[in-house]
Structure formats: structure tokens, C-alpha cells
UniProtKB/TrEMBL annotation:
Ranges of compositional bias, category Low complexity: 14-32
Lineage start: Bacteria, Bacillati, Actinomycetota, Actinomycetes, Kitasatosporales
Matching PROSITE patterns: UVRD_HELICASE_ATP_BIND (PS51198)
Species, as recorded: Streptomyces poonensis
A Gene Ontology molecular function term of the record: hydrolase activity
Name of the protein this chain belongs to: DNA helicase
GO biological process, one term: recombinational repair
Amino acid sequence: MSTRSADPTRPDTAGAADNSGAPGPDAAPDNPLLRERAHLAASRSALRAMREEAESLDTSNVSANWVSAEALRHDIDQRIKALADLSGTPLFFGRLDYLHAPGRDAGATDEAEEAHRFYIGRRHVHDAGGDPMVIDWRAPVSQPFYRASRRDPMDVALRRRFGYTGGELTAYEDEHLTDPTEADTTSKLLQQEIERPRVGPMRDIVATIQPEQDEIVRSGLSGTVCVQGGPGTGKTAVGLHRVAFLLYAYRERLARTGTLVIGPNRSFLHYIEQVLPALGELEVKQATVDDLVAQVARVEVRGTDEAAAAVVKGDARMAEVLRRAVHAHVTLPTEPVVVVRGSRRWRVPAYELEEIVRELQGRGIRYGAAREALPQRIAHAVLVQMERAGEAPDDRVQDAVARNTAVKAAVKEIWPPVDPAKLVLRLLTDADFLAEHADGVLSEDEQKTILWARSVRSVRSAKWSAADVVLIDEATDLVQRTPSLGHVVLDEAQDLSPMQYRAVGRRCTTGSATVLGDLAQGTTPWATRSWEEALAHLGKDDAVIEELTAGFRVPTDVITYASRLLPHIAPGLTPVSSVRENPGFFDLRPVTEDAQVVGACEELLKREGSVGLIAADARIPVLAEALDAAGIGHLGPGEETTRETRLTLVPASLAKGLEYDYVVLDEPGAVVGGEPDERTGLRRLYVALTRAVSGLIVTHAAALPPQLG
Ligand SMILES: Nc1ncnc2c1ncn2[C@@H]1O[C@H](COP(=O)(O)OP(=O)(O)OP(=O)(O)O)[C@@H](O)[C@H]1O
């Protein structure tokens, strides 16, 4: 491999690595860097032309009606946005020169170099004649950029990576994959990209997706993939790029069915929200599980549960309790239904009604769907009698009978409407009602644990907890099917309860999912014990489970230190091995006062990049005060850093998924002690220890947890 950079006007610094490619009109023929810059400039103009064309589209005469004109306008607006030339985001980052022009017959003799050469970038750009200038990274032709190797060159003669400085193309690096004399080295540009300081929100990794990550990114829409990976192995990045890939490969289907990214909290969603737009995807919804279920239940979360209650409420057995409670509303008929029409009376006897009800129960359809079907079934029984009596009733008569007051009254009696929120309220407040449906499912103690201490008058005045709302969501789905999306990405999945997995699962029953998580980072009392179990709750038993172990975030010394906790928090998991060359730094620092913690932050703020001060939640107010006293501005997690304010004060409970260039971790013992049990505490500490990209200072006034050795 050879890297060329620096001054492109001096042919000796760039050029030797490249001997292919026709010179552009303005480029020196022997200077590859200039030629590549010329291609970049030409691609930019082509992109501008594409955008201008989209902007000039006149939709006024095209569409038949107002609604479709609006839809068309929206599509065009989105396209214009997607065609924006984002400053600071290079239009292409790589190039592939194939040995044979892809897509041609083996015997074809098209020797035009353009047919062999492809620039790989974030979006497709073509020239006025429709010929590609830049190929979308998701296109099949781009795949070897991520996967080709000397062992399997995938018909690629040259892979070139480009380096940029401040938006300028300043370097390139070549690999001649079929040249046996060329030594195999690691890419400097790749390494630089991985080591680049972090500022602002998460960014895409499209130029440097690794082969094992690419396999996950490009796996098809039909299957669910579950990724177990330690801190910083790129799970979130992979999940987001997978959505982008699926939207490219299955655009129409997913435009109809929709995609959704689920994250643990708002600050995390805020942190990742720029990635998909940067990849040209503007329409992906993002939410937390709490948001999703609250939308359906239409109640507000105003209460919290004791851990013990939340564990029982999140247990999958609650689904059975709810199923019983919903279906117990059906009462087998004991009275006939008598329909009077004109001078005649039609009588459907109780035993026949019972047959209808049992048949509907046996069909396994939703409670609400069966309820809607019942009047028509009763009407049908009446129609059969009419026909036997020599009448010739049609569909209109059947509809009229179904709407008859006697039929309606019978339906209300037999199959009454169920309000899911009211049902859950009753289960949580009426001990007898709960006992009736939880008998043999939950123990008496478990029932006591979830019953509310105080009686509540209405759904509105109830102080619903997050776990309660998931129960309402389950009950709602028993009554009426939840619409399914085409694909759901579920990040930080290890923290979900079985009932939450079910809630997510019903949002992708007819679609697929990407499940991302780390068993070692599970910090809820109901955290996932095994992915097989979680996938069963999700309804995706046939998912493929992949493991990522190469770490892109945390420097070696830090991850080695943090991994000391693994045997105590998730025995059997493979420790992450850092791919960062920059060793970073790691400092364990005994302190006696908070001012020294502030001092550590000040020290790190002298360096480039973001700084996070992570502390036990209970320590946040004191530390905020200490920072204020020292005149150091600070932000909350998820808030965007600026040049002036680069320090974020992070409660340990919100650190998951986030990263900072430098981290000061305050008082590990307090982080552990802030959790209800030791294992959860150590897991919280593991999360906090693994947020740093370039350096970590651990400050402690008290003894360090013995598990750290
Ligand atoms: N192939 C890659 N090239 C460059 N950077 C990468 C690559 N993969 C991941 N990264 C970077 O590594 C960091 C960690 O990635 P990410 O947050 O996706 O990891 P994670 O596995 O979700 O971590 P956690 O378990 O802590 O949430 C991010 O800054 C991401 O951009």
C-alpha cells in the first residue's frame, strides 16, 4: 500500500502510486491528486446540476389532485435536501478500479476505463449524459470497497482511499489487491479516521466500515440480525448504516411500511440524529420504547415503580394475565336473540349463539376483530332462517339485521368493548380481579407487589409508570392489531424487559429487526440474560446472532482496565480488543476534594475535542456547583458542544451509548453504590469506564471497587 499526500502541485509527492486514468481536461496528466481533485470538482458541479434540475421541476400540471400534488412536492423537496452538497462531507471517499467492467459478459471487450472505475461516495451523482460520476456506497458495485482483500480481491485491481483536510482532497492511498509483491499494511487514512477527535453529535462511518460490520450492514431485509458487541465496537453505527442500506436496497417496500430506530433515551436519540440525514435518509423515525407505547396508550407517565414491581410487570407472564383478563369479558349467551322485522320474529336460540361465539374464540383473532364480526354472524343465522322460510334476503338485509337493536344489545352483553387502559387500571387496583386472572400465573406475593397501594379513580388521574404503559400497549394489541413496520432497529436492547421486547416485536411482526446490545451493559433489574431468550420475546427466534469484538472507541489501556469487570458482570463474553493505535492515556488519581475533580476537567479541556465528566447521579448537583464556582461552562448529555463549551456533565445513568474524547470518571465506588445491587453497579461502572476515545482520568476519594483489582 502506498499513501500520497501533501502538495499536489509538486508531482513528486503524488503520482507514483497511480498509473491509470485519463487526465481530466484541466489536470496535469502525471499528477493523480490533481486528476482526482478535478473529478471532485466535476462531481460537485454535476451534483449542483442535479439539484437545480430537481428545484426547477414544476408539479402544478402533473398531478391529478391536490393530495397527490402535495405528496409529489414533498418527494421533490426531500430529493432536493438529499442532493445538498454538505460542506465538510466529502462527495466521495474511495475509488475502485475493477479488472473487468462489472455487469458485462466475461468476453466483452469494452476497454473504456470509465467502465472499470468507480468513485464511491455518500450518494449517487451522474453527469448530464446520465453516466455515473459517484456511486452510492450502498450499490452492489461499491461492496468490494469494504470487503475485498488480497485473499479475495473480488475482481478489484485497485482500491484507493481519499484523505481530506477541511473539505479539500489532500491525500490518497492505494492498494493493488492482485499485486503479489505489494505488502499488506494497515491503512493510515483508515487509522486517522478512527482516531479523529470527536466533536458534536455522532457522525457516519461510511468511509471506513469494516468487513465484519459490512456483512451486518448489507444483510437482507427478510431476516432479523442480533448483534452482541462490547463498548465501542460500532453497534450503533452499524445499525444506522444498515437502515440506510435497507432504504436503498428496498426503497419502495420500506417507503410503504416505514422504518424506525429505537434508542434508550432522548439524549441518546439526539446524539445519533444527524447520522441518517448525513447519509441522505431523512424519513426514518426515531423513538424510545416509552414514546412508542405512550402514543398508543394515550396516557402520561407520571409515576415510577419499585424495582420489584417493575420486574413483575415486565415479565412475559403478564401477557398471559392480560390475555385472560381481556378474553374473560366474553360471556356465553344464555338467552336467545329475537329480531323483529315487519310482522315477523326471528329467533336465534342460545345454543346457536354459543356455537357462533365458540367458533370466533377458536379462530385466534383479536378480541376487537371478533367483536366486530359477531353481529354479522348473528345476522347470518337470521338470514338462513329467512331463506328456509322462503324469503330471498340480500346483503342489505343482513347489514340491517346486524344493526338491529336486539342484535346490538346481545353483542354488548356477550362481547362487550374493552378499554385497555381501564382494564390495566382494574388489574392494578382490584386485588380480586387480579387474583382471578393471575391465578396460577403469578404468585400471591407477585400479585401483591404489583398492586397499587392507593385506589385510583380514573385512567386520567392515575400515576402510570413506564412499565404500566407497556401493559396497556399489550392489552391494546389484544383488542386490536398493532400496525407493523418494515424494519426496526433496536439499540441498547439489553435493557429491555420481556414485555418491552414484545411491544417492539409487535411493531415489526411482518417486518424484520436489527437488535443491538451488550449483555455486559445491562443495567436494569430485568436486563437480558441471553439473546436467544430476548429474541423469543421479540417473536424473532430465527434471528442470526453476530458478535463484534474490535473496539473503535476505547484505547487499549482503558478497555483492558474496564474488562477486569467482565468476569463479574457477564462471564463468558469476549473482551473487546481496541483497534486504536493511539494508546491514549489512562490515569488513576486519588483526590481529597471536588476541586481536584474540576482541576482534572480543566486539564483535559486544554486538549482538542469533547470532555465528559461522568459521575454517580447523586454526585451531579455537587459537581455542577463546583464547576460553576470555577467558572467552567458545562452541558447536559445530548446537548451539542460548541467551541466555547466542550464539557458535558453526565449522570452515570445517562452515559450509555455516548462518547467523549476525554473523560473524567468521578468516584467509581459511588457509581457502583448508586445502583440497587452490586452487579448492576459494576455494569454501570463498566459503561462509564468505556466512554473515552483518547483518555480517561479516574478520580477517587474513596477506595476503588475491589473487582477492579
Ligand atoms: N468502522 C469504523 N470506522 C471508524 N469509526 C468507527 C467504526 N466503527 C465504529 N466507529 C466509531 O466508534 C465509536 C463507537 O461506535 P458505536 O457508538 O457505534 O459503538 P457501540 O458498539 O454502539 O458502543 P456502546 O456499546 O458503547 O454503545 C463511534 O465513534 C463510531 O463512529
